C-alpha cells in the first residue's frame, strides 16, 4: 500500500481581498508557528481569489511553513481571445501547485459541464499545475441514484479528457453538505471515496489508484475533521467556510493532535 500525504486545502471562495489575504496568511503562519511537529507530514494549501494570488505567493515564498498555493478555477484554453479567463500557464508562473476544477459552485452557478471540467483539468496538468477535480451529488441525485453514482460518473467524464499519467487530486464534495453545516458522516464519505478509488483503478490502473489523494469536502470543521481522516480512503479535506478563520483552520490542519 502506497503512503499518501494528507492534504488539507482551504478554498476561500470569493472572500478576502489581497490586503485581507496578506493579513490572514500572516495570522495563519503565526497560529502554526509553534505547531510544525503537529502537522509535519501534512500538506497544506490555500486557494485565494485570483486577485490575491501574487500577494500570497510573495508571502509564502518568504515563509518557512511550506504552505502551497492554489487557484479556484482555470481556463481550458492556453491564451487568446477569452476575456476574463485565466490560463494555467499564468498560474504556473505564480508557482501555484494546484487549481480547483469543477467545484459545484462552478458546475451549478456557471453551467460548467463534465467536458469543460475535464478540459480544465487537462489544461492545468499540461502546465504542471495539479488539478483538484471536484465531484459530488446534489440532494436530488442522492435520493434518486444513491451517493456514489453521480460522483463516479463525473470522475470518469473528467478522466476521459485527462491524459494518462497526469497527476490529479480528487475532492468528493456532496453538494448538500457544502456550506450547509450538515457534513456527511465519515462512513458516508468513506463509502463514496472507496467507489471513486475503484473507478480510478478501472480507468488508470493500480499505481494511480494507490497514489491518488481523495479529499472530503462539505462543512468540515475542527470538530469533525478527525473522523474523516481516520477513513482509509479519505486523504484530506477541502475546507470552505472554516478555512477563513485562521485559528479554526490551524486546528483542522493539526487534526492529529
Ligand atoms: C467548499 O467550498 O469546497 C466547501 C466544502 O465549503 P464548506 O466547507 O463551507 O462547506
TrEMBL record:
Active site: 103, 173
Main location: cytoplasm
Endpoints of the signal sequence: none
The keyword S-adenosyl-L-methionine appears for this protein: no
Major enzyme class: isomerase
GO function terms (MF aspect): isomerase activity
Family classification: Belongs to the triosephosphate isomerase family.
The protein, known as: Triosephosphate isomerase
Chain's gene name: tpiA
